[in-house]
Amino acid sequence: MKQFSDEQLIAIAQSSAERSAFDELFRRYHAQLRNFLKGKTQQATADDVLQETYIKAFTKINTFKSESSFSTWLFSIAINEYKQSLRKGGLFEKLKESLFRQPPAQYSEPAVDLIIDFSRRAAALSSEHYNVYVLSRVYGCSHREIAERASLPLGTVKTYISQAEKQLKLATGN
What we know:
The protein is mainly alpha-helical. It has nine helices and no strands. It is elongated, with a radius of gyration of 19 Å. Keywords: DNA-binding, Sigma factor, Transcription, Transcription regulation.
């Protein structure tokens, strides 16, 4: 696949859903994209956004029109995914950001206490409830995204989140 141009790989990926063609396209721009994202946020978040970009580009490759270059299209997806990650960043995500920017000796007691408290309360959840809850509240995924990722019906995802919230409230005594 390395011998093909971007345009040829796009045509292959669009016509046959050939993953190796898409993988080669993404490989060509991976380092540039990763460096671009690492300049905007911490490495773990950059890697998450990069993965979301890969998934979105793979699932939307048929919508690519050759009106711009593939790299422009791919970077616009990455920028949108990055912006979405910022919008969805809740308290726990912001806490992780602040903790991982500081050396361990500088962790604030309230921040560490919050993580420990969450970890203790979350231990009461089943693995299904925990996974769905974390995808929703920590990573900011929509119910529909969680349903797709976990191969669960949308109603089940909503129920799991609601049940997890109730269990977490019971665990705190609120």
